[in-house]
Amino acid sequence: MNSRKSVVITGVLGGIGRQLAKTFKENDYHVIGLDINDADAPHCDKFFKFDLHKYCSDLNYKSEMEAKFDQEIPELFLLVNNAAVQILSSVSEVRLEDWNQTLNVNLTGPLMLSQFFLSRLERSMGSIVNIASIHQQLTKKRFVAYASSKSALVGLTKAMSVDLQGKVRVNAISPAAIDTQMLREGFDNDEAKVQMLNELHPSQRIGKPQEVSQLALLLAEDKLGFINGANLKIDGGISNVLKDLD
Q1: Which class is domain 6-178+211-232?
Q2: Of 68, 148, 185, 212, which residue has the fewest beta carbons closer than 10 angstroms?
């Protein structure tokens, strides 16, 4: 039996996912990473190539992966639902398959994984951390599916905390702009645009992946065990800003 606390992190190969794995590994967790891509996962003790959309839409695949998890993950203290897809489209453009994929990965997947690992989390008196987004509160054009999924994920967090009271704590983290390769690619690696983004925030900078991972670590530990059903914004104050015309 593994004496270290075990954590499952989905989307472990993304910018925030890699940092989550690094932070928990440095704090002596047994890190189990899941990702749709298959690449080197340096901070993981175990890694599984895993398709959340398929997990929610293909019963055979779901059964196959759960049999593997039953064998490979006998105990669990923390589930971090970090994986997400962001497919941009306006209301008139939204395709049903893109909408379903977004909801499966960003919302239904976290619920199904929470359900599957529930008995392990109950035994360890552990918790679930859902990585939501500032888009649950403030959004932009063409983020219809993504913003809807993240709003629902925060609602799911609250509902699960009530439903699982006394058994498993459930919290959400809603980051604003975090300095990852994906964010920079979204700005075509234009440093001037990234600088403008920095200056929009009262903090005068965007967030760092390790700030999200440190918050997840704090939420996982018993020192802050009274935090339950919360959605903690980590946004550099951007959600307080009302832009003027000058």
Answers
A1: alpha beta
A2: 185
